[in-house]
UniProtKB/TrEMBL annotation:
Residue ranges annotated for the PNPLA domain, each copy included: 8-196
Source organism superkingdom: Bacteria
A Pfam family the protein falls into: Patatin
Signal peptide limits: none
Keyword annotations from UniProtKB, A to Z: Hydrolase, Lipid degradation, Lipid metabolism
Official protein name in the record: Patatin-like phospholipase family protein
Length: 330
């Protein structure tokens, strides 16, 4: 099959990012599929950097190995809230509720973040900044202004990656060149526009970890709280996609204001998600880093990617495989 190139947009979602690991692992099995640009937020940023670092070392096989090493380290190092079997969900909810009233500046005064040492051991940031096989766009949120910051592969350090995944109730803000950053999900989860304007490939595959539509109205206190949190991390993405949808509708009526408009018009969007599976997982499971749970997410990601490829691989390079207006329009 003729080689086709796509861009990837990887959403954040804590431990649920292991689903994206499975997706990427399956995509890497296709020798005809290449990547140009990758944008990622939080767990999506971790996956993006591991994909690039592994490919830098040893191509597709290296990317698979690097992703596996990262998620294996996440489970073995206990970065989640590891509690006795059978009580994780209730105690994690209690912990999340308690963290609303406690600052990391009070309980983590030494700013200990075990993820820092793990990432430094897994990624040669100096080499990656010089030899990245892909264009990388790692999202973080500037605390003072609320603006989206996109860190490129040429400047990447462990701090940039930590900034993208910095949950303000758990870790102190990450300082980079005098600015402070929190999780990129507050400003772009994920950011799409750099893939449209900065990359040559017209195909963009968005890997979603949050559902676009709920099957039922949340009425319980926990369900409402979970949905409020999800909306907070999805609002900017939904606004960006709606703006794209509305613009493309205007283009269909002949309104084309410039070269950027041409890129928007020619963009081919693809969305990969497993709404039924991921919506069955509660908010607390995003902090579950047990090996068995991460492996279940990995397998779900693999099978979802397999199904998506069987349905849409021939769309890549030819046409969009989803209706932007139907999904994101008014």
């Amino acid at each position: 099959m003729k080689t086709r190139t796509i861009n990837l947009a990887l959403q954040g979602g804590g431990a649920h990012g292991a689903f994206t690991w499975g997706v990427l692992d399956r995509l890497l099995d296709e020798p005809w599929l290449d990547f140009e640009g990758v944008t990622g937020t939080s767990a999506g940023a971790m996956n993006a950097v591991m994909l690039a670092e592994g490919w830098r070392k040893d191509g597709r096989a290296g990317a698979k190995e690097q992703l596996s090493a990262f998620w294996g380290a996440v489970s073995s190092k206990g970065f989640g809230l590891l509690l006795p079997e059978g009580v994780e969900s209730s105690l994690t909810r209690w912990w999340l509720h308690t963290m609303q009233y406690i600052s990391p500046y009070d309980i983590n005064m030494l700013d200990i973040n075990p993820l820092r040492d793990m990432l430094s051991g897994l990624v040669n940031f100096e080499a990656l900044s010089k030899e990245s096989p892909f264009s990388l766009y790692i999202a973080a949120t500037a605390v003072r202004s609320g603006k989206l910051a996109l860190f490129r592969e040429s400047v990447l350090s462990v701090n940039h990656l930590l900034a993208s995944a910095c949950l303000p109730k758990i870790h102190k803000a990450i300082e980079i060149d005098g600015e402070y950053y929190w999780d990129g999900g507050f400003a772009g989860n994920p950011a799409i526009f750099p893939l449209i304007y900065d990359c040559s490939s017209k195909d963009i595959l968005i890997v979603l970890l949050q559902t676009l539509d709920l099957d039922a109205l949340p009425t319980g206190a926990e369900a409402i709280a979970e949905r409020v949190t999800e909306l907070g991390f999805q609002a900017h993405f939904m606004r960006e996609m709606r703006a794209i949808a509305e613009f493309r509708e205007n283009v269909s009526f002949g309104f084309v204001p410039g070269t950027k408009a041409w890129k928007l018009q020619k963009m081919r969007l693809h969305i990969l998600q497993n709404q039924a599976y991921l919506s069955s997982l509660d908010q607390a499971s995003k902090y579950n880093t047990r090996k068995g749970f991460l492996e279940a997410l990995f397998l779900a990601g693999q099978s979802t990617a397999e199904q998506w490829l069987s349905q849409h691989q021939n769309d890549i390079g030819r046409r969009a495989s989803c209706d932007i207006s139907a999904l994101f329009g008014a």
